[in-house]
Amino acid sequence: MKLYFQYLVILFKSQVQYRTSFWLLTLGQFFIPFSIFAGLYFLFERFGQIKDWNFYEVALCFAVIHMAFAISECFARGFDAFSSLVVAGDFDRLLVRPRSTVVQVLGSKFEFTRFGRLVQSIIVLVFAVSNLPIEWTVLKGVALFLMIASGVFIFTGIYMLAATLCFWTIQGLEVANIFTDGGREMAQYPLNIYHKWVSRFFTFVIPFGCVNYFPLLYILGKTSANSDLYVLTPLAGFIFILPCLLVWQFGVRRYRSTGS
Amino acid sequence: MIKVNGISKSFKVAKRSTGVGHALKGLFHREYTTVEALRDISFSIEPGEIVGYIGPNGAGKSTTIKVMSGILVPDRGSCSIMGYTPWMERVPYVKNIGVVFGQRSQLWWDVPVMDSFQLLRDIYKVPEPEYRANLTLLIETLDLNEIVNTPVRQLSLGQRMRCEIAASLLHSPQILFLDEPTIGLDAVSKIAVRHFIQTINQEKGVTVILTTHDMNDIEALAKRIILIGKGSLLYDGNLQALRSRFGTRKTITADYRETDIPLDIPGVSVLSWSTERAVLSVDTEQVMISDVLTQLSRQVELLDVTIDTQPIEDIIVQLYKEYQIS
Amino acid sequence: MKMYISVFKLRLYNGLQYRSAALAGIATQFFWGFIIIMVFEAFYSQLANTPPISLTQLITYIWLQQSFLAFIMLWFRDNELFQLITTGNIAYELCRPSEIYGFWYAKLLAQRLASAMLRSLPILIVAFFLPQPYRLSLPPDPSTLLLFSITLILGLFVLVSISMLIYISVFVTMSPVGSLLMFGVIGEFFAGMVIPIPLMPVWLQHIANLLPFHLAADFPFRVYSGHIPKEEALTGIITQFIWLAALVGLGSFAMRRALRRVVVQGG
């Protein structure tokens, strides 16, 4: 953990060396999701609601998923950008150091410009929460926190899977975007607006539903009585990362036996 | 210290061919060829040795280094370094080694060198007093005082390489792998790097294994060389022995008072001849140098004579030719 | 012209080499398409009054967006050109016996065409055979198809002339980040990439129609589905021509100015 922090510091120092481009990119990360949010607003202005969800409820959903995405893109960027590490042959360097590959890959890159996106989603979150008639309890606060944390774990897990793919081929990685960018796009709306096959996939295979749907129902008081168990659903995201770690280890083993 | 026994390794490589037709075919089916990168390589290295590991491009040098540093798992064979099998016990093992890949950097590009050093200290969990002591020694012997606070991207190649080597010694490894440490360096930097390798070898007893294409590195540093070609070990032994086995030719350059009578000395081939100067090549196994000189002074009025040993480069080229690996 | 064809061939060939990349891209775009369509399906399911564009037309709109992504994305960039400018190697380009504006224009055009070839055809074909209601419907009649082709090609020309402005701006800013960002965010929003223009509030539609960005994407796609009647399409084509002339004029003028500076400074 201390080491991870050290990596953070050194890479932050590196990035602020290029000040103009750093600020511009941060600003861009603020405005890109902003334009998407504006689109969301205009759609609700025209249609009023989407399957029993009103604008502020969806805005909350949007904020949570974008926050999780921003955090994971910032702190797990090493896995997201892993292909460049493999192409440059720098993964060998990590293997001759006495630390776990996961920590070292995580520490190989951070994308601090994602703070722009984070700030944007925090603003949306505050905006949504202040417009929703929620009676806040400790448990609801916990649920909200778990939603975000769980989202971070899921995105990181997907990055890890995509990174593992690099050991076989560095082409076709774009397919991982289905689950990262696509997952983010999908999870902006509560899961039940989609068809059964989509919502099943994103509940049981990649558990985005446990981030943006079940706990959301709980927070908004849309569940039937006695539903405190919903608070725990985000834990599925934490479990999701375990098989991802295993697959990663398998990939590293394969790399070391083929050296490709 | 290092025992390598019967290491073999082969890779599958996808065939790539040009032409749109082939590219279309490649959409559905891809052919592979197997390349044997290492075949039954065995050697052992004692503590404190400096070993030059040489061979033409693609001979398997890097693969061997990767196996020995725990990056790659070989198909067959065993390897024991300081009691560890490198690829089995990666984390505890790599604490004891330092690796420099000449063509890649381990320093963080945009921050001062010192920051990189500190991060490496934390990666290797080097105790503070040990780190301090090592740092002082390295800064002094590598003359880094002026550059440790400069961002890496502003350093020259030679300065950077000195920092790279320092970076891989901060955790006091007992073995240092150097993969082409002098590549692309100017003459002054090369000498500095060589000198430093010698110093840490003598003073700290670090075992050094280096691969290089620059035979001057080998000549300056390594008493022993291991030559591989096409994945097989071809020669393992003393550099001097190699020289006396292959380097039996000497070159004699003679200046003399103008004459138009060509030289005629048996057992000697004339490399060039003019009315004032001749360059001769002598195989010392057939003719004695003194005999050649006697003959020379009889035929021309000598002004100056120089005798050169065959450069090590030529010997290596000759070796490659002999084993048909170039 | 010959150079243009060879750039095109090189790109196409490169694309073929990376087969899994192409397949992955297609899969990604399908997924996106489905997600967006499902969101609109959900929105439309509870609609009281008639929407400004029917769901079938909207689905067609979205599939066309996905398949012609290479024609409309502004962030689709050529780093080689950026480097040429920022490193000063542009001086070498000046030695070539062709006018740089035309040369770069052709290069960018060829790149987009080649990428679209690889992606759009497979997506279009599959989208035509999807089950209802997701199927990409055919245009109402052949003349609409003809109009669509014309507007699409003209739209591509307009888009390339916009993206030329991004490259030219780098002569001044020396970094592509800012311009790409500005053009990317604003351009894509007003091209109807975030939400289709007919679904925007009326005041925003007016702004979108005043800007050239919708000419490359929104306009041809609505011509295809018949959402824009033929007479209107014809006036639209005239607008496309006007914008094209203006943008190319502005671009080549700015380029000459920028190059003069480069020459004066000695690269």
TrEMBL record, chain A:
Record's keyword terms, sorted: Membrane, Transmembrane, Transmembrane helix
Record's keyword annotation contains Transmembrane: yes
Transmembrane segments: 21-43, 55-76, 118-136, 142-168, 201-220, 232-252
Keyword Lipid metabolism appears in the UniProt entry: no
Protein name per the record: ABC transporter permease
Domain of life of the organism encoding this protein: Bacteria
Pfam families: ABC2_membrane_6
Source species: Paenibacillus mendelii
Recorded coiled-coil stretches: none
TrEMBL record, chain B:
Family annotation (Gene3D superfamilies): P-loop containing nucleotide triphosphate hydrolases
Domain spans labelled ABC transporter: 2-255
Keywords, ordered alphabetically: ATP-binding, Nucleotide-binding, Transport
UniProt keyword Iron-sulfur, yes or no: no
InterPro entries noted in UniProt: AAA+_ATPase, ABC_transporter-like_ATP-bd, ABC_transporter_ATP-binding, P-loop_NTPase
GO molecular function, one term: ATP binding
PANTHER family attached to this UniProt entry: ABC TRANSPORTER ATP-BINDING PROTEIN (PTHR42711), ABC-TRANSPORT PROTEIN, ATP-BINDING COMPONENT (PTHR42711:SF1)
Protein name: ATP-binding cassette domain-containing protein
Automatic annotation (TrEMBL), chain C:
Keyword Lipid metabolism: no
Keyword field contains Metal-binding: no
Superkingdom to which the source organism belongs: Bacteria
Positions of transmembrane segments: 21-43, 55-76, 116-134, 146-168, 180-204, 233-255
Entry keyword set: Membrane, Transmembrane, Transmembrane helix
This protein's name: ABC transporter permease
Higher taxonomy: Bacteria, Bacillati, Bacillota, Bacilli, Bacillales
